[in-house]
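ok trying this again, last paste got cut off
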Amino acid sequence: MKTPARMVVAASCAAMLLNGCAARNANRFEAFAKAGGEYADSMGSLIEQAGSLAVDTDSDILLTIREPLSRQERQQQYQAHTEELRSLLGQLKEIDRHASLLKSYFLLLARMAASDQPRQVAGDAQQLIDSLVAVGGVIGKGSFGKSNAGQYVGTGTSFIVGAFRQKVLEEELRLHGALIVRELDLQLSVLKTLSIQMRSDSSVSAGIREYAMLMKPYASGAPMPSEWKRTRQEALNGKSPVTALDAAARSASRLRESFIALAEGRLDPAEIDTLLADIDAAKNSIKRITPGR
């Protein structure tokens, strides 16, 4: 029979184990939220560069088709191209907003994991979820060129939510975990689709500029422009945004896998390190295509 002293020791040990588990869970959610935040922040820079490329490409096309057109036709072409471009830029802003909402949700989970009163923190979850679903719905129905932005979103992923000391956190993951995975799928689908479109846009823009700024002056009988060599160097060694998009897609895929591991209670420090490495690689790729960086 256990003595009172032994019972107290056993109870103390159990409490220490529970507290230790709670601390580890809080640390995992905090580390994941930090990584998710860095991913979302990098998306802002990437979306900005994608928008700049879209504007440059469309401007190159407008200049190329301008000469044989009448004044009225030029006005019509400009209005049509500008309207389509504004729609695309609006979609890009929604993608950035979507990533920011995911960041806010990950931070909310971290707060729940660390809080002594998680139910109060959980009260903000539904509003975030509603916003995510609304913005995700708009993005999923959009398109880049002829490709639907949500074309790579799967039918869903099954996973089993782990047991957490914070039962409210566990309930939240059971309620919305699958939805968050679907929204992360949407981020990945958008990046893949955008990469395909930007690869095409880059090719069109590069071809137009090469002809106008390099081939045409070289083939003409007029004196060569003084900056011709430098322009050719920049054209042939240009920094492609597609590389940054592909790196961002890899980090989005890793973020999705890590979230599932987090929800199942099996995310370990090594996986967090791998996730952060992928996000850093994406950030570095984005810096290389950002003017003045």
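PB: full thing came through this time. Strands lie at 143-144, 147-148.
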